């Protein structure tokens, strides 16, 4: 029987468990393993095919040498899938050794691809893949989105209960797609703007399986929980409430979280259900306090809606957190100050600050690819006294300042905590370093794509 080893960096990602589940259902002998760039490829179990899931540009940069060592050591087919394959050239130009990448939703493609590789069939016959052939990237016919009712169950590893992803053992998929069109986000580009939801009974059965394997703390993933079951309408509050109630019955409210909610889809009914059936936190994608930047991000929300949702959440007993993006292209000092003011005024109970990351395939990546390095705030030095002292770029400096402001809102009594300030500084610098690498890769990738297009 053909053996497939599914490899997932650092944690068991939900996508890797789904791919392993699809392969097992098709009759392959499947194992799933976590790895890091330090793992010795010679110690991996033997397999006939290796399938690796990567989900960020950084993963491609961090693991490309490891994957090439794996290929040399085993000389067996190596497949890469995951969100990084949206622009397959990102993987195929960095890793010549990869036999094929799965583009888009992979549950059906992976089964056909493994069969084709094992039987040495022409890869052209497999829809939804890309591969290198005679110095060119060949893309086969895109595959239709899968029917969520028929989506396979994940293969759940025995040690799933030992991992923690932002406090949860696992993020379970309830739907695919998002009605939003935020310019920095991959979700609508990967899964479309139509929301396809899984039936509640299947999600409940899956959560019971996770619980049996020791994954007691479950978070809901998907574009945003509030769109669950919405069909062609903007949202269906009753369906969201029913989902949360059903999952809470299995897990208990202390073990369920429904983190991502858009501020313009946070109805009182949904917020009340979050307070009653989950740990009671929501994470609003606030992003910016500047209406100009929100519009540029195609966020589709007004600053007033942010205030309204956060205050209503507090009133209804929900703990609201917010995520923010700084140094978005075109963000002026004044725009950033508007975000600082928003952070100071909003009663948020946690803050997540990120420097804008150009994810290949998004409108933001296109814009960043076209920008001159000298205009990109990640590469512009902050010439304030503080910026010069720590060698920060403007983007890093803004990320740091916003982290500090958020902390002050939450903990007014311990302003000046040196240890926390140091951690924020390290975090801002690490983000800056990582996103600079991704930016250079995006510029290289888009210049290659455009060159090919023009040629
Ligand atoms: S609402 Fe959330 S998931 Fe949807 S496009 Fe915007 S950031 Fe992405």
From TrEMBL:
- Which positions fall inside the B12-binding domain? 1-124
Q: Which UniProt keywords apply?
A: 4Fe-4S, Iron, Iron-sulfur, Metal-binding, S-adenosyl-L-methionine
Pfam families in alphabetical order: B12-binding, Radical_SAM
The Swiss-Prot or TrEMBL record lists the needed cofactor(s) as: [4Fe-4S] cluster
What's the protein name?
A: TIGR04014 family B12-binding domain/radical SAM domain-containing protein
In alphabetical order, the GO MF annotations are: 4 iron, 4 sulfur cluster binding; catalytic activity; cobalamin binding; metal ion binding
Question: Heme among the record's keywords?
Answer: no
What the entry lists under InterPro entries is as follows: BchE-like, CHP04014_B12-bd/rSAM, Cobalamin-bd, Cobalamin-bd_sf, Elp3/MiaA/NifB-like_rSAM, Methylthiotransferase_CS, Methyltransferase_Class_B, rSAM
Record domain Radical SAM core: where: 164-408
Q: Which source organism?
A: Candidatus Methanodesulfokora washburnensis
């Amino acid at each position: 029987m053909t053996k497939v080893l599914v490899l997932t960096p650092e944690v068991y990602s939900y996508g890797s468990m789904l791919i392993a589940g699809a392969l097992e259902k098709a009759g392959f002998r499947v194992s799933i393993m976590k790895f890091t760039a330090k793992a010795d490829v010679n110690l991996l179990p033997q397999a006939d095919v290796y399938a690796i899931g990567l989900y960020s540009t950084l993963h491609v940069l961090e693991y490309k040498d490891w994957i090439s060592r794996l290929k040399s050591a085993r000389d067996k087919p190596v497949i890469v899938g995951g969100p990084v394959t949206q622009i397959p050239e990102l993987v195929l130009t960095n890793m010549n050794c990869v036999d094929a990448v799965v583009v888009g939703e992979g549950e059906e493609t992976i089964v056909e691809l493994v069969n084709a590789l094992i039987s040495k069939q022409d890869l052209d016959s497999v829809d939804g893949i890309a591969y290198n052939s005679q110095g060119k990237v060949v893309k086969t016919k895109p595959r239709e989105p899968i029917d969520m009712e028929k989506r396979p169950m994940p293969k759940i590893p025995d040690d799933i209960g030992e991992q923690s992803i932002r406090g949860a053992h696992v993020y379970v998929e309830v739907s695919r797609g998002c009605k939003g069109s935020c310019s920095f986000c991959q979700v609508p580009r990967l899964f479309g703007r139509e929301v396809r939801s899984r039936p509640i009974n299947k999600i409940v059965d899956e959560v019971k399986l996770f619980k049996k394997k020791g994954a007691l703390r479950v978070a809901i993933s998907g574009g945003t929980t509030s769109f669950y079951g919405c069909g062609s309408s903007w949202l269906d509050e009753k369906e969201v409430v029913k989902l949360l109630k059903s999952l809470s019955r299995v897990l208990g409210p202390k073990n369920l979280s429904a983190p991502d909610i858009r501020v313009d889809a946070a109805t009182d009914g949904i917020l009340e259900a979050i307070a009653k059936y989950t740990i009671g936190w929501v994470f609003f994608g606030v992003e910016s306090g500047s209406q100009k930047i929100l519009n540029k991000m195609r966020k589709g929300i007004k600053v007033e809606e942010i205030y309204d949702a956060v205050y209503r959440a507090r009133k209804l007993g929900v703990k609201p957190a917010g995520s923010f993006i700084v140094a978005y292209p075109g963000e002026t000092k004044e725009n950033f100050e508007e975000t600082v003011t928003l952070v100071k005024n909003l009663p948020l109970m946690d803050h997540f600050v990120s420097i804008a990351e150009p994810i290949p395939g998004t409108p933001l990546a296109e814009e960043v690819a076209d920008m001159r390095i000298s205009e990109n705030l990640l590469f512009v030095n902050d010439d304030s006294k503080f910026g010069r002292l720590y060698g920060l770029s403007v983007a890093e400096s803004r990320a740091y300042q916003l982290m500090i402001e958020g902390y002050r809102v939450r903990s007014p009594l311990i302003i000046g905590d040196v240890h926390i300030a140091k951690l924020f500084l390290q975090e801002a610098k690490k983000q800056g370093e990582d996103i600079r690498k991704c930016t250079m890769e995006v510029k290289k990738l888009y210049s290659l794509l455009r060159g090919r297009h023009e040629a």
